[in-house]
């Protein structure tokens, strides 16, 4: 087995967390007997933009479509390039052009990482947020009328297509079915948003009939946010529209500790590279965090979000054993360090109350994977 991976480090700490993460993936490939070919691209970064006046080369699509998956660091250097240029010109273009309609984020309490909520809940946190990633509230339909007058008015419409709503809900049901708890929570706001949200609820009810083994519940987004904070241990798979999913997919990882450990997958689960009749749309794996200009260049960024994103990528490519081993290695190294063993606080990065560096923590996880 052999996979070609597009590697895009981006800006800031993206450039620092990528090398140790690639070594972890390499260790997993060696240990579990498959090959990874990394193709590194300097674009989709502000450095590239400042040199070329554009975020992407004209053939970026073909270059990425020649790969099995995209491994993305972080983009953004707000001091030199406005965020709407750098993000719309890179990661958002990938999501849209490759129809990556699922944004999937695990929220899990990792041994050794202190959650702001751990003591309150006293129970393990282990759930996924599934966000619709292509339509909904984030449409470009709308505009301004009566500009510059007292009657100035802006309108932006929400777009829910049957195909778009059904495919994300069905993906969430399938994920719930594959997990022991088999529970799906749907985010809604049908008490206030009276056309699109009742439609969303209706599609959830309809598709639920195909999954009698999955327990379904729905909450309005406002109280659901409160439940995330007060009882995060009760969730299993949580599905939401583009806007609600965006909110929940940042709140979820925040409930499990530092943003530095959280990964994210932008998936097109229906695209098949081997199918000659449809275009190939690769999926993209990235940490939740951005380029962190405030700590860039110091070598202290937490590499776990990047490494965990690599773990999701291996799982997506079908390398389940290697993915499981990577997850165990992350948990083992962090848990051991917190207990004072295996280098103790000296290998944890400062965001986890340690004194370690990106390189030290990355190497410890790499060695643990090689030993699996
Ligand atoms: P950020 O995630 O880069 O940083 C937020 C805070 O978390 C900072 O204090 C940072 O030091 C800390 N942090 C983030 N990752 C960390 C890690 N791995 N280890 C330790 N601490 C970490 O978000 P911010 O500051 O809002 O954005 C900075 C730039 O990143 C902007 O240009 C923004 O547009 C971009 N960005 C890019 C994303 C992407 O590439 N998908 C996602 C989010 C932001
Ligand atoms: Mg967000």
From TrEMBL:
SUPFAM superfamilies: Isocitrate/Isopropylmalate dehydrogenase-like. It comes from the Eukaryota. It catalyses: (R)-malate + NAD(+) = pyruvate + CO2 + NADH. Residues 4-365 form the Isopropylmalate dehydrogenase-like domain. It is an enzyme of class 1 (oxidoreductase). InterPro entries: ICDH/IPMDH (IPR050501), IsoCit/isopropylmalate_DH_CS (IPR019818), IsoPropMal-DH-like_dom (IPR024084), TTC_DH (IPR011829). Its EC number is 1.1.1.83. Keywords: Magnesium, Manganese, Metal-binding, NAD, Oxidoreductase. One of its GO terms (molecular function) is NAD binding. Its cofactor is Mn(2+); Mg(2+). Belongs to the isocitrate and isopropylmalate dehydrogenases family. This is D-malate dehydrogenase (decarboxylating). It comes from Collybia nuda.
């Amino acid at each position: 087995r052999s996979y070609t991976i597009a590697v895009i480090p981006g800006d800031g700490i993206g450039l620092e967390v990528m090398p140790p993460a690639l070594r972890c993936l390499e260790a997993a490939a060696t240990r579990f007997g498959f090959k990874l070919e990394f193709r590194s691209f300097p674009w989709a970064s502000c450095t590239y933009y400042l040199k070329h006046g554009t975020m992407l080369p004209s053939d970026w699509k073909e270059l990425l479509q020649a790969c099995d998956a995209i491994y993305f660091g972080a983009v953004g250097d707000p001091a030199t390039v406005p965020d709407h240029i750098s993000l719309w010109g890179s990661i958002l273009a990938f999501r849209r052009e490759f129809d990556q309609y699922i944004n999937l984020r695990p929220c899990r309490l990792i041994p050794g990482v202190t959650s702001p909520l751990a003591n309150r809940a006293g129970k393990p946190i282990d759930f996924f947020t599934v966000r619709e990633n292509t339509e909904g509230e984030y449409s470009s339909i709308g505009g301004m009328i009566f500009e510059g007058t007292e009657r100035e008015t802006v309108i932006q419409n929400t777009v829910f297509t049957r195909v778009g709503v059904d495919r994300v809900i069905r993906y969430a049901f399938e994920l719930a079915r594959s997990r022991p708890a088999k529970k799906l929570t749907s985010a809604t706001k049908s008490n206030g948003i009276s056309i699109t949200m009742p439609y969303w609820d209706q599609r959830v009810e309809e598709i639920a009939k195909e999954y009698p083994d999955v327990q379904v519940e729905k909450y309005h987004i406002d109280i659901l946010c409160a439940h995330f904070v007060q009882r995060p241990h009760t969730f299993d798979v949580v599905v939401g529209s583009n806007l609600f999913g965006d909110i929940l997919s940042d709140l979820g990882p925040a409930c499990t500790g530092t943003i530095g450990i959280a990964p994210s997958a932008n998936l097109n689960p229906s695209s098949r590279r081997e199918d000659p009749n449809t275009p190939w749309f690769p999926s993209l794996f990235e940490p939740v965090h951005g380029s962190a200009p405030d700590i860039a260049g110091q070598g202290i960024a937490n590499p776990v979000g990047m490494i965990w994103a690599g773990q999701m990528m291996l799982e997506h490519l079908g390398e389940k054993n290697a993915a499981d081993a990577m997850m165990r290695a992350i948990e083992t190294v962090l848990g051991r360090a917190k207990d004072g063993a295996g280098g103790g606080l000296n290998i944890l990065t400062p965001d986890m109350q340690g004194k370690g560096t990106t390189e030290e923590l990355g190497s410890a996880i790499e060695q643990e994977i090689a030993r699996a």
